[in-house]
Structure formats: C-alpha cells, structure tokens
Design goal:
Blueprint: E1 14-15, E2 27-29, E3 66-68, E4 73-79, H1 85-104, E5 110-116, H2 121-133, E6 138-140, H3 148-158, E7 161-164, E8 176-178, H4 183-196, E9 201-207, H5 210-225, E10 229-236, H6 241-250, E11 256-259, H7 263-275, E12 284-287, H8 294-297, E13 306-309, H9 312-326, H10 334-350, H11 358-361, E14 367-369, E15 372-376, E16 382-384, E17 387-392, E18 395-400
Parallel strand pairs: 2-14, 4-5, 4-6, 6-7, 7-8, 9-10, 9-11, 11-12, 12-13
Antiparallel strand pairs: 1-2, 3-5, 13-17, 14-15, 15-16, 17-18
Helix pairs in contact: 1-10, 2-3, 4-5, 6-7
Region (Disordered): 1-23
Family: Belongs to the leucine-binding protein family.
Organism: Bradyrhizobium erythrophlei
Length: 408
C-alpha cells in the first residue's frame, strides 16, 4: 500500500492459501488505494431502509439504459435511478462508484449494462430481461429486497448468478448472493470478541422491528454457540421505559449489555436505562455497525462501548477518490457497487469460462474489497471480516483490527 498521494489501483491478485492435501482455490484480492483522511459515515442500513422503495413514487422519468466500457464480458447493473428520495440519491452514487471502479481497474474486459429498475419489482424484471437479452453473464443488483425475487426468477432459468445489494437475508438463495452489510456479521464479530475477553453473561435490549428480529436470532445463536448465557432479554417499541427497567434490574448478573439500534434511538435507549437506575459505566456495552454515528460518539452514556464495523480506513480512501472525481461525498453503500464491479472485473480476468459460477463466487478464501475481507456463503448470505471499534467522543477508535484471512 502506498501513502500520501500515491495509491495502488485495484488489480486481481492470486494468493495461495495454506492447505494440507489438495491445492485449494486461490482467493481473488481487490487491492485498493491507501487510506486518505476523511469522515466515516454510518455503515449499516437497517433492513427497512433498503427493503422497499419510497411510497412517494418515482422522482422522475426512467433513465435510459447505458453501456459503459468496451470489454467482451457483459455485466448487468440494476439500480433504482429514477426512484424518489434517498433511494434515487443512493442509486446515483452507486452508479458513480461502479463507473469509478471500471475506470480504476487496469484494462477491464467487461462492459457494464446499466439499467434503471425504478425501485420496483416490475422495473427489476424488465431491466434484468433486457440485460440478459443483451448477453449479460452476471447481474449486479437490485438494491431493494422486493425486487430481488423478480430478478432471480429470470436469472435462474438462464443459469446466471446475481450479486444483489439488499440487506434482507431472506431474499438470498441459490444463485443469488448478497454483497451488503448484514447484521449477522456484526453480531457474530462483537459477541465472539466479547467472549474472547472473558464475557460470559449477557443482557440485551433490542428494537421490535425487522432489524431487531434478525439481530435477536443471531445473538441468541452465537451466545449459545460460545457457551455464554443470556440473563435478561427485552425488546421495545414506542415504550422504552418498561423494557429498560426490566433489563436495568438484571444488569448486576451480566458481564455485558448488547444494544442494537441507530444513533438517535440508541441514545434514547441509553437515557431510558440510566433513568431506570442502570450505571452504564459499570458494564461493557456492545453494539453493531449502526453505532457508527455522530450521535453515538457524542453521548456520554455510550463512551467506551464496543461495536463491530468495517475498518474505516478503506472508506476514507474511497471517499477521497470519489470526491476528487465527482465533487461530492458518496453514500455509504456506494462501496458495494464499487466492490461488485471490481470483483467481476477481477474474476473475468483470472477465472476463465467459469468466472461467475457458484464454485468461484463461494471461494472459501473470500475476496478483499474496500471494506475489508468478505466471502459469499452457499446460501447466498455473506460473511465479512470486521474490526472492533470503541466509542469515543472523537469517533470510533479501533480496538481489534479486521482479519487478514478467514480461518479454516
């Protein structure tokens, strides 16, 4: 890795993995630029944010299909470019990032077929059909969970893989892989880290919503797997005071308190616990990537809490290059589009005719992207190599780095 103004452009790289017996398939590394200074935004979107488009309807007319690049390997990219509100803004930023990846990759042999799915299943189906008819060998996107099955119905009939950007694991499956920040990875990383530091008894206070339900299932699973016990578990809706009192009364027998909500809500939950008599300075607070938020860093009650998130240096570097090219900050999910395009460009160069097969995409060694190591599971979900960060008034401070490789 370079430093200062120098940076390495992404390039495919083979790395041998230690093995006893047969040679394992090599990982494809996407080597990214050196860290640049810059702010790191919140990393994980709640399930609801990108599960369905805005109810306000499309913000504008559908955008015309666009082909970018002159390579022989055609790749479909579905984004809700004409959707309203945050969805359309995110889509434009992801489109920019995808084109940036193509520009930074050295002589990629791919052509991006960019389709506006308008944030609807019908739009996704139409865009997918167009891309397949034009020869797409793999589809990147859609963003919304509701649109993924519409795409998958067409791609499975053709034996074409999909790398979608939804955070809803329920839409993953045969031939449909999610390149997104899944809550399951956060929970696994932070509980495994807490266990490694001697924590055995856990209390938890989680939101009663789709995100909270996913986090709950993984939390209970990983605590059990690591031999821990749950001494108190509550969920809250509009009323936080009652569940907070129940949890606060049980903290005397807990080593750690697990909270999983976004910035404003998390601060409100911490205030409710404090009002119920909990001394949060006397227990180790644990959280997810949603904690990567200025409101959390500014909260006195949450100082010293630990959460799992990608190492922020990769996003800082990416943001610096994006700003230099487009004159604006990227949305946090823009790295997903960048990594997806860089990944398919690397596989097109190194993996021959089987480049986008399930066997190649589910390589257990994984891939290295802007946000660190990731790999696709056979069920279509993913696993990320995350860092452990500590809440400080100046922002998140690394406590344990992200892994350099996935264990056996």
């Amino acid at each position: 890795m370079g430093s200062g103004n120098s940076r390495e452009l992404p390039r495919p790289e083979s790395s041998g993995a230690k093995s006893s017996g047969a040679t394992r398939r090599t990982a494809v590394g996407l080597i990214l630029g050196a860290p640049l200074l810059g702010a790191c935004a919140g990393v994980q979107q709640s399930l609801s944010q990108f599960s369905s488009p805005s109810a306000a309807g499309p913000a504008g007319p559908p955008q015309e299909p666009l082909a970018v690049g002159k390579g022989q390997v055609k790749v479909g990219l579905l984004l809700p470019l004409s959707a309203s509100g945050n969805a359309g803004v995110a889509a434009q930023s992801m489109k920019n990032a995808a084109e940036m990846a193509l520009a930074e990759f050295q002589n990629p042999n791919i052509q991006l077929l960019i389709k506006d799915d308008a944030g609807s299943p019908q739009g996704a189906q139409q865009g997918t059909q167009q891309a397949l008819d034009e020869g797409a060998e793999i589809i990147l996107g859609p963003l919304f969970a509701l649109s993924v099955p519409a795409t998958a119905q067409l791609t499975r009939a053709r034996g074409v893989s999909v790398i979608a950007f939804s955070t809803d694991s329920s839409v993953a499956g045969r031939g449909v892989y999610l390149l997104s920040f899944l809550p399951e990875s956060d929970v696994n990383r932070i509980i495994e880290y807490a266990t490694s530091t001697g924590k055995r008894s856990y209390a938890a206070l989680l939101p009663e919503n789709a995100y909270g339900n996913v986090v709950e299932a993984t939390f209970k699973q990983v605590v059990g797997r690591k031999g821990g016990r749950i001494v108190a578990f509550e969920k809250y809706g509009a009323d936080r005071a009652g569940p907070a009192r129940t949890v606060a009364q049980a903290l005397g027998s807990a080593d750690a308190l697990f909270l999983a909500d976004d910035g404003d809500s998390l601060v409100t939950v911490a205030d409710a616990l404090t009002a119920a008599g909990a001394n949060l300075k006397n227990i180790q607070l644990l959280g997810t990537g949603l904690w990567d938020n200025p409101r959390v860093f500014a909260s006195p009650a949450l100082q010293g809490g630990l959460y799992a998130a990608p190492d922020p240096s990769g996003f800082r570097s990416f943001s610096g290059r994006y700003r230099a090219k487009y004159g604006a900050d990227p949305v946090r999910t823009a790295t997903l589009a960048y990594d997806a395009v860089a990944l398919v460009a690397a596989l097109a160069r190194t993996q021959g005719p089987q480049r986008f097969s399930p066997e190649v995409l589910t390589n257990p060694s994984g891939f290295a992207g802007i946000d660190g190591l990731f790999r696709f599971r056979a069920d279509g979900s993913n696993e990320r190599g995350l860092a452990v960060m500590r809440v400080a008034s100046s922002g998140g401070a690394p406590v344990a780095g992200s892994p350099k490789s996935f264990g056996a």
